Structure formats: C-alpha cells, structure tokens
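Predict fold of Serine hydrolase domain-containing protein; 454 aa.
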Amino acid sequence: MLPSTEFALLSRIATEQTTNRAPSLVAGVVRGDELVWSGGRGFVDDVPPTNDTQYRLGSITKSLTAALVMRLRDEGKLDLNDRVDAHLDDAKTEAFGRLTIAQLLAHTSGITSESPGEWWERSIGDTWEALAADLTPAELKLRAGKQFHYSNTGYGILGEIIARLRESTWLDALRDEVLTPLGMSRTTPHPEGVAAKGWAVHPFADVVLPEPTPDAGAMAPAGQLWSTVDDLARWTSFTAGFSGDVLHPDTVAEMRQAVAVDDGDVWAMGYGLGFQLVRQHGRSYAGHTGSMPGFVACSMVDQTSGTGALAMANTTAGVSILGVVIDLIRTADEREPALPEPWRPADIDLKLLELTGLWHWGPSPIHVKVLPNGWLDLAPVGAGRRSRFRPVGDDVWEGLDGYYAGETLRVERDTQGVPHHLNLATFIFTRTPYDPSAPIPGGVDEAGWRSATE
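Predicted 3D structure, encoded as tokens:
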C-alpha cells in the first residue's frame, strides 16, 4: 500500500496499544486472498511481535467450528434443522436433544451461555461426558428460537457432533479439513514456537498479572485456538469467500447472512451461521471477535468492498479490538479504494436472452437481467422485491436472496416454445400488465384497461 496509507494504519494500532496499555498488538489488512499490510507494536519477551507470533483467538474458533458443520451439511451428513439427539443419541442429551443444529450455530437455542461449574475459560476443561451430564433442564435459559442468546456451551455441543460424525476428534477434523487445506500451519490448540503470554493489566497502575491458558476440554470448539497474523489473514480471506476447497463460496455467503439480531430496535450487531455481523457507518461487516483471559482478537470483512482486517492483543481488557479492525478497513478503503475489475463480456448461454427485459407483476414493471455467472436478477423498476435466481432444472430456477429466497420460479412457454409468462411462488409475471392470455389468478376483466374510473 502507499506509504501514507501504511503510516495511517500503523498510527491507528500504535495509538491503541499505547493509550489502552496492551503489552503487544498485531494487525493486518487483507484484500482478496492477500495480506497487503501488517504491523505490530509493543513487545513479546522484550522483542517486537511479528506476523509469526501466536496469540489466542478465543471465539474466532467458533467460526472454524461452524465451517466444519457446514461441510457436513454440504456432504449430506446432517441437516441444519436436525435435532441434536439425531446425532447425539445417548441418554445424557435428554435436556438439550430437541435443540437444532441451526439454533446452536446462530445462538438462538436458549441454552446457557457458559458451561456449568467453574469459570471455564480459566479452568482445566472436562470431558464431553462430564459436560453433557451437567447440562440439565435448568441450563435451558430461554425458549429455543425466542431470541439471540450467545452460548459458548452450544459450540461445545457442536464440537461433539462433529467428532461423532467424523469418527474422530473435533481437533483432528479441523486440522485435516480446514487448517491444512488453507495453509494455516501456525494455528494450533496450544502455543507453539514464538507465542505471546496472556496478561491482565491493572486498571490503575502500569503493572501486569499473568493469566492462565488451560486446555478447554469439551469446550475447546468454542475458543481454544491460537494463531498468527499470517494464518488469521488466510481465515479473513476465507470469510470473504476465498474459501478454496474447504467450502463453496455460496456456503460461506450463507454463513454471513443474518439469522439473529442481538440488540433490539435498530440492529448494529447480529449473527449468522458461525459469523458475527456488525453494521457501522452505513457498512456491513462479517467475521468474529474473540476474547480469553489474557487475549482479545478480531477478524472482519467489509461485505461491500471485500476488504478485511484482523487484530490480536495479549491483554484481558481495555483494547477496543473490534473498533481497531473496522478503523483499519475504513482507512484502507478511504485512502486506497480497490479498483473494480475491468468489464468484459460474459461467457453465458445466449438462449437466456429470451428471458431478459421487461416483465410485469400485475401492473408493476420488473426488469429481468442475466448475471455474468448465468443467474437471473429480477429487479423492480423503482421500489419492490428484488431477488437473484440460479437454474436448478429445465426452465426451473431457485431464489437465492430477498423475499423470494428458496422459492421456485418456472418459465412457462407457449406452443412455439417462446417464454410466455413466469410463475414465481404462484405470482404470475407477464410481458404486459395483466396479460389476459396468461393464467392470472382471479382472471382479467373482459373490458380490459380503460381511460377513466367507472
């Protein structure tokens, strides 16, 4: 990046590290699948941190766990609407077996936020059997589906489902299916090589206290992992859809879609299927924050520009890690907006052209366009319902977003094979408003259109 941009980025993290007294702080900016800037401030064992210094990720681990669940879904080994007891069928799951996988992923299951017993983040973790035995009906705090209720415990359950279906451990599955394919060789369950120590900084004096970093046991899928700038940059690119062979970009986009909102009237924070969602300054971000005693971390992507950023610090509190990451993204985009790719003609089936142009839903005009990937875009002329569709069969399309997400669009042809009307979830779209030759529900007045109201 330009020297002036790099200085502005470095200034932001330097100010944060000094003002909020973090022993060390590292950060990076990502575009596409490339780390375009990185920097660090402070000291780790009296040496400045580097891109290869490990920090604990905390709850960013949840997004990686969610990726494993989505792989299982895409392989047909589970459905997101499956109940937990469809995959964990032992008697100890009676209290939470009726919860669904989707509810656990999106934190809408109502199960307790923290595992029963001692503060799990500072205690040696127990086995799955012990965790399951502790999850009595009293740990169901809210009606399932009632509202967003962040739950570390839910991701402990998801980790066990992964282990059962893979006939492995959560960690082995993660290493084999996510970390290794993405080249995240420095992302580990415990610190290896150069790693920052976790510290608590005294609120009223410049002194520090070491924090424990025990193994979380059955709760590991909620927050166990350690990583580096280089590795977390790869995961940030994954969040933006540069997902390699781990997941299809469409599945990653599905994970970024809002499922739950956690703050009422005007939502600024929400959650998808394993990703946190943030709305600030008219922009929408997806990723995850993380905190464990001694550490804070964050990885976010601007869903419009595609620019991502990450930051990690070895302090329990004080650093506004989400604010740092969003400021890095905004600084990069404002100072060096990414240039759009040059336009060029698309390689599409030219037969799709007969579906394009002006259609009408009743009297409302709609434009149908072919997208570069061969999908259809139904866009109202003015206000209205807009959705994209992908082909799923001959003259059959599936809605991808908006009001018509999941709905079926069928192209109905005349005896000459020419598209005559569209049937979208029972709504009839015609080339002219209320075409009397189309099967308009309720029929069309025989007198037709008139020049004055009668």
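Residues 292 and 368 are 49 Å apart (CA to CA).
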